[in-house]
Amino acid sequence: MSASTSGRLGWTVFTPPIAAIVLAFSWGTHPEPVVAALIGIALIGAVLAGVHHAEVVAHKVGEPFGSLLLAVAVTVIEVGLIVMLMVSGNGETSTLARDTVFAAVMITVNGIVGLALVVGALRHHLAVFNPEGTGSALATVITLAGLTLVVPTFTTSESGPVLTGSQLTFAALASLGLYGSFVFTQTVRHRDFFLPNTTATPGGWTPDDDADGDGHADPPTNREAWTSVGLLVLSLLTVVGLAKVESYSIEDAVDWFGFPHAVVGVVIALLVLAPETIAAVRAAVRDRVQISLNLAYGSAMASIGLTIPAIAVASIWLEGDLALGLEPLQLVLLFLSAVVGVLTVVPGRAKPMNGIVHLILFAAFILLTVAP
């Protein structure tokens, strides 16, 4: 391995395979606390490695393709996890998709956005981003959430927050259409609206990575990039798999504390979205808040736009109703998040206070999930 490859990859080459071995030996088990702690260490290592490899690939393909790649990769695996849990039939599955998607939306549009804005504004006085691109992303998230999570609460053709077959088909097709249109806008038609407007070093490389002395970090070679693609996929698969293994310990802890079962889904969502959270914060530290927002809103969009169609197809074989409509308390939190998000995005720059408002909403979501 060359010095350049070693500098870029290093320990991250070995961590995903080790974590995968841990997953292979722990899959299907109900680990004791000490073993669960060791599995947790492997999970954290896989998360950190996944973030690093995502940045290597992002540096090779450029933005906004890099943030789009990480958002889609995590969401595709998350969808597989949801479907797997629904098919297994453990616990309450009728609201599993709704609760998981809603948790992902709240984590991304308030948790990740809030952290990125606070970190970026504190380090660089103001967090600056492009309101045109970010505004279209937020508008798409709000529309997707409204059609798939809000509308089912008020439909009357079926009793409860459930869509009919034709309504669910429309919601699935609309989700795919909106998400596909946004990806086209982000990567082809108006790509410049989603690029950071700073001269910060892309990918977080240090001057040591500038072998040719041109003042810019050298892009990874094709071999390095393809190696990172494979290790990124392995890292993400391992993160989701280990999160599933840890879910047994999480369920035990939730039951011991007497929390609602929905808390399990929130904790797992936090684990699955950890790579995107870390990547977004690191981008904000480098004054590339636009990338942070691309990750946050892109993840929210992908979580809805890919999950709902997949669940719609899976529902053909699954027994029981698929409850997608939000509860009144969840509706209030989503409405507040949408209003605050619009007020944050429109100016194109944010103070730490803007991020704090989002983080308070995220804290309220966590508290009201634990104690509704």
Automatic annotation (TrEMBL):
Residue ranges of domain Sodium/calcium exchanger membrane region in the record: 35-187, 228-369
GO molecular function: potassium:proton antiporter activity; sodium:proton antiporter activity
InterPro entries registered for this protein in UniProt: Alkaline_pH_Ca-Antiporter, NaCa_Exmemb, NCX_ion-bd_dom_sf
Localization per record: Membrane
Cellular component terms per the entry's GO annotation: plasma membrane
Record field: transmembrane: 9-28, 34-53, 65-89, 101-122, 134-155, 167-185, 225-244, 256-274, 295-317, 329-346, 353-371
UniProt-annotated stretches for the region Disordered: 201-220
Record-given protein name: Ionic transporter y4hA
Membrane topology: Multi-pass membrane protein
Highest taxon of source: Bacteria
Keyword annotations from UniProtKB, A to Z: Membrane, Transmembrane, Transmembrane helix
